[in-house]
């Protein structure tokens, strides 16, 4: 059995395995998150990188929020990450406490919380008997971790995360 959490870009076969389990749109989001982490000088892709990619790339994700002003506020916080907001994260590993801290055998290039969110997205897809996780699956998995950087950004932008989670669960029920 292959490791579901091997998201690093170091091995092309591993990346292809992950990409085969994601929709084209979500694979694009993951690539954007990797590029953003590298460009920002971050050692790992974290949940805020993933949230930023989702908001920029997927209209369905943007539609899950309470309108354009809320999305604009979120993007504003995420863009400020390297010039102000988010500087407290610089050089630190995102560990929300939702999963035990991984010291060895973790997912190279991914924070523990981001790896857990990707697993959650895949689990959500499998629960509806889909072979590929999509962008809304990842958004729901990000919202499920109340201590993640993504949820910190959402709260700072005045997003009611419980309401967002309920809305996403309602979308999931309609898909089943």
UniProtKB/TrEMBL annotation:
Cross-referenced InterPro entries: Clp_N_dom_sf (IPR036628)
Protein name: Peptidase
Record-linked Gene3D superfamilies: Clp, N-terminal domain
Species of origin: Streptomyces siderophoricus
């Amino acid at each position: 059995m292959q490791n579901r959490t091997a998201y690093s870009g170091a091995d092309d076969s591993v990346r292809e395995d992950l990409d085969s389990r994601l929709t084209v749109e979500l694979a694009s989001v993951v690539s954007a998150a990797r590029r953003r982490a590298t460009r920002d000088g971050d050692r790992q892709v974290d949940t805020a990188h993933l949230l930023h990619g989702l908001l920029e790339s997927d209209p369905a994700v943007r539609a899950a929020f309470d309108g354009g002003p809320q999305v604009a506020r979120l993007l504003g916080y995420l863009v400020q990450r390297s010039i102000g907001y988010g500087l407290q994260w610089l050089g630190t590993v995102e560990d929300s406490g939702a999963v035990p801290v991984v010291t060895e055998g973790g997912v190279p290039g991914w924070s523990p919380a981001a790896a857990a969110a990707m697993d959650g997205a895949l689990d959500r897809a499998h629960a509806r008997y889909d072979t590929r996780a999509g962008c809304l699956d990842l958004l729901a998995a990000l919202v499920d971790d109340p201590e993640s950087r993504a949820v910190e950004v959402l709260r700072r932008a005045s997003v009611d995360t419980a309401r967002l989670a309920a809305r996403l669960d309602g979308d999931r029920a309609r898909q089943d």
